[in-house]
Write a structure and sequence with these properties.
Length: 354
Amino acid sequence: MPLNKISGFSKTLINWYLSSKRDLPWRLNNDSYRIWISEIMLQQTRVDAVIVYYENWMKKWPTLLKLSKATEDDVLNAWKGLGYYSRARNILKTAQIVVKENSGKLPEDIISLNKLPGIGRYTAGAIASIAYGKQEAIVDGNVSRVYARLLALEEVINDPKQQDFYYDIATSQLPGKQLSEFNQGLMELGALICTPQKPNCIECPVKKKCLAYKEDLVDKLPNRKKAAKSTKLVRLGLIIKKNKKFLLIKQNKKGLFYGLWEIPAIALKKEEFNEKTIADTISNELKLVGEIENKIYEVKHTFTKYRETILVYSFTPEKIPLKWQKSFFSLNEINDLPMGSAHKKIFNYMRKRK
């Protein structure tokens, strides 16, 4: 399809954004550090949930230089509750690289930004355009949905094979100036007006230019691929206590939960299990011999493509391996440890149970 500019679109969008934008803390200025942190936090997380985390983060580390001197545990603890902890680890890695190699300032061009840990095509475009006014497009779910309706596009918006197509569309509409306001206006329009369900077309500033609105296709667009079915996981988690303290293990295996603290746990093939088989597995995998006692709690949570159930049982070991002798923590101490949401729920329950 021809990629001509839609007459008056960028001007109308920018004017609407300037008059209607939400008052968000990362919009106080166009500082690249503040924009970068907000964009990473906003991945997979609602705006209203991010605000408190963002404000606390900026109080703790107001500059990229101060952040670069933080420990990984400090950063993970500040991220606690946002999930996808690799984002936090990559933030710290990037801060350290930028301080060492670029005098503490994030690069202005997307090629250099893309080389930094955790900064992909979208985030690089957001930093370059919003902080530095560069003529770079951004495409996320909000932006691709806006363009799919605006131009009545049939191309699936959540298919990676179509990402270049939507970037070409977005690039074709970039104005010559006010790139920050334009790109933020696109995101704002998708978040507030051109929403996935029940879009508010009456209030849309660009409805006169929208083909889906003119052709009564708004409810039919955008096209999306069906999400893959999630995989069910079951784990047995063990509550092991000594002197009113709980045994926790720090995950040292690279992956989603690397660096987080958890109760000892083993994978199960199903929720109903044979006690003898489980005892053998605990012995083989955790090197713990003892007695499985009563069921305390059950927590369900979802992450990436998995739906996990953790069955929490009390367990009395005959002895604790030497490597874990100093891994017992009180409930107050656990408050300060980086921990995934499922394990936070477990200890929230333990506090109520006291």
